[in-house]
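Hi Y.,

Following your request, here is the sequence exactly as I used it, all 415 residues.
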Amino acid sequence: MSSRSRTALIGENLGIAMDVLFAHKLRSALVILGVAIGVSSLIGMVSILLGLRASIVNEVSSYQQTVLLVQKFDFFVGGFDESMLRRPDIEAEDRHAIAARSKSLDHVAFNIERQGIPPTLSYQNQKSRMVGIVGTEASLLQIYSLDLSDGRMFTDTEVSRAAKVAVLSNSPKRDLFPNIDPIGKKIRIDDNEFTIVGVFAERKALGEVADNFVAIPYTTYQSNLETNMDTPYIMASVRDDVSLEEASDEVIQIMRRQRRLKANEENDFAVTSLDATLDFIARLTAPIALVLSAISSIGLLVGGIGIMNIMLVSVTERTNEIGIRKAVGAVRKYILWQFLIESGTLTGLGGVLGVSIGLLGALGISILTGLPFSLSPLFILLAVFVSISIGVFFGLYPAYRASTLDPIQAIGYAK
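Below is the corresponding structure, written out as C-alpha cells. Let me know if you'd prefer a different format.
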C-alpha cells in the first residue's frame, strides 16, 4: 500500500470513527470521560510538581553565593534514631564560634523559624494571610542575595538589644498596606507589636511561597515568640575562592571543637548546603511521579476496559456492515485498521480533554494557593500518546474479531 493510499485509508476511518461517536453520544462520552479523568489527574499533579521543582532550582540558582547550613539534623537524609533525637539544638554560641574561627565564610547568621501553624499579621483592622516567621540577623540580606524595595534591614545593634522591629516580604505588605507606605507603621504578631523598618523586594522564583514571610531579630524572637517546636539553624555564605568541600570541612571541625566531641564520637549536628536541595528534590519527585502515574493508570485502565466493551458492542451492531465490506473486497487488514482507529480516536479525545482539564486545574490551584506550575509539552504529548495507545491496545481483540468474521455469516446474522 502506498503512503497516499494509507493516508486516505486513515482519513476515511477517522471519518467513520467520528460518525460512530456522534451516533452513540452517551456511551462514547462515558469512555472519553473515563480516560480524561486519568489523564487530567496525572497532568494536573505533574504540572504542580514540575513547577515546584523548577522554581526551587531557579531559587537556589539565583543566589550569588554558595550557602552552607548547620542544623540539628540533615533533613535531606531520611531516618532518625533515638540518639539523633537527643542531639542538642543549634545555638547562637555556635554561630559566634563559626564566625570568629572560620576563614572560608563571608557572612554568618543565626536563624530560628516558626514551625507548626504559622501566625497572621495584623495592622489596625487589616489581617494578612498566614505567613512564615524567621528570627535572623542583618547578614540575611547578603547570604540570600535579597534586595529591599523600601526602608532598611534591621541593624546588628537592634539585634543585640532585641528591638521589636520587622522587615516584611512583599505578600504581607500587599495584604496589610496595599495603598500606604508601611515604613514606621506598627503591626502585631501574636500579642507583640513590631515596627516595620523595611520591605523585601519581590522574589519571582517560588512565587508567593517564597514571598510570604516576615523577618525579625533572632534575639527578639527568642524573647517574645520562641516555642519548643521552633527550628534553630545557622546559615553562612562561602567565599568565592573557597570550595564547598573545604568550607564544609572547616565548619565541621569548628563545630566539633565547640561541642567538645572526642575523635571517636560522631557529629551531633549536620552541615549541608542549599545545593543539596536539588539532589533531594530529584530524589523526591521521581517516586512521586511514579505514584501519580500509578494512580492515573487506574482511570486509564477503566477507560481501556470501557473501550473494549464498546468496541465489542460496536462489532456486534455492525456485523452486517462488516459483512458487506468484506463481500465487496475489503481485506482483513482494512477492517482491523477501521476498528483500531475508532478505538484510538475515542481514547485520544479523552486524552486531549484530560490534558485540558488537568492544566486548567493546575492553573486554578496555582492562582488559589500561589504554588507555581509548569507546562511540559513532553508530558502533554506523552499523555495523549498513552491515551491513544490504551485505545489501540484494548481495541485489538474487538478489531481482530471484526476482521475474522465470515462475510456470508455476517450478512446472514444481520438479517
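The mean pLDDT is 81.

Thanks again,
Q.
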